[in-house]
Amino acid sequence: MSCKDKKEVALLPQDKTPKNILFIAVDDLRPELNFYGANHIQSPNLDKLANESLVFNRAYCNVPVCGASRASLLKGVRPTRHRFINYKTRADVDAPDAISLPNLLQQNGYTTISNGKIYHYNNDDSLAWHNNWFPKGNIRDYQLEKNIVENQGAGQANGGAVSHEMAQVHDTAYFDGKIAQKGIADLRELKQKKEPFFLALGFMKPHLPFNAPKKYWDLYDRNSIELPESYIQPKSTPRKAFHNFGELRQYNNVPKKGDITDALAKELIHGYYACVSYVDAQIGLVLDELKRLELEDDTIVILWGDHGWNLGDHKLWCKHVTFETALRTPLIIKVPGKTKGQKTDAITEYIDIYPTLTELVGIKAPETVEGKSFVPILNGKTSKKDWAVSKFKDAVTLIKGDLFYTEWTKDDGVAYERMLFDHKTDPLELENLAEKPDYQETVKVLAKELRENWGKDFLAKN
């Protein structure tokens, strides 16, 4: 069925009114948060939400790049060698016959609203939304005129990777403050309607550049920031596993090649922390309003980051690799009457989000959806699924228990490079085991399971 086909999809029988869904996406958010065992980023609102939610300790995106990850998640369809490739991915081009989650909900009586960055392109999957809004301004969200001029429009990023641009700028000067206020205004309107709603808020930070109001920078002491323990690129790891972090090098305070200085590395880490605290404050405003309007008891809240992010890990920055730092993501879901701060180690993929939400609100997921609902986990049961598959370009990774196995494959599926880490003994992924004699039988088994689980269309050209 085409996403433009308005044929109704039947509701499943249910005993209660469909619940609202507040769908919060955060760009480039790592699971480096207090409820994941870290204790150095101040994010009190996310911490509070986690204490009311089910927290997934082992959630993984299916592709570590924004446009492709979002399209895959919202369509419920796996990436392949030729589908959902990079940040320019459009869901309505790559998977035109798969009904997106918001489109399905709209067809079943939901008011659907997209604010901020949900898809990479604001006009992607346009028929799925009753209202689709993005704040005005230069895409890098600079406030200083010098930076705006140096930015040269949406395609350039010369203004600098890190900057607290003004001494005292209000939170609403930046996109995320505007997105929060638009979300709050929408909640007030939706409160007056009888229809259930799917309100999607796509927050931009902590995406580069790390510009946030000065008060959030002031929460952290640069002198106490340390480089990650994994600030190394071991010789046993294939060189193809690393990249030149070109996304970061667009900025005029970052050298075009080679390692960056330790001072700049710490400034980037500082800026990342500040941006997480900034977006945390904006999300807190929305959640406070949800409570004030007495909507929270009838609203599912799900929060996710579109992929992980390297913050100096393996001397890398940004995403675009298949190390765990780029694949593992924050994922928390608050379901009224079900969640209260539980945590699960069940391996979960982002394509599992779509069928979970539809099951929770009593709508049958389309046959195109490839994920597996994690509602049984919400009900306290043990998940039978112990694997996930992620890919980026030629690299495709099977996550199976504590093992992270990656193959770089050709169009015919034949591997030309391998990488294997055992997180029981090597959680930082510093020793590639794939070529060691003692692991050849393990590699053979994992290679077979990878092909069994990467999806029936993985090698298809269309």
UniProtKB/TrEMBL annotation:
Any Pfam family matching the protein: Sulfatase
Transmembrane recorded as keyword: no
Signal peptide coordinates: none
Domain of life: Bacteria
CDD domains: iduronate-2-sulfatase
Gene3D superfamilies: Alkaline Phosphatase, subunit A
InterPro entries xrefs: Alkaline_phosphatase_core_sf (IPR017850), IDS (IPR035874), Sulfatase_N (IPR000917)
Cofactor(s) this protein requires: Ca(2+)
GO CC terms in record: cytoplasm
Gene Ontology MF terms: iduronate-2-sulfatase activity; metal ion binding
Domain Sulfatase N-terminal: 19-363
Record's keyword terms, sorted: Calcium, Hydrolase, Metal-binding, Signal
PANTHER family, per the entry: IDURONATE 2-SULFATASE
Family designation: Belongs to the sulfatase family.
Name of the protein described by the UniProt record: Iduronate sulfatase
Organism whose genome encodes this protein: Hyunsoonleella flava
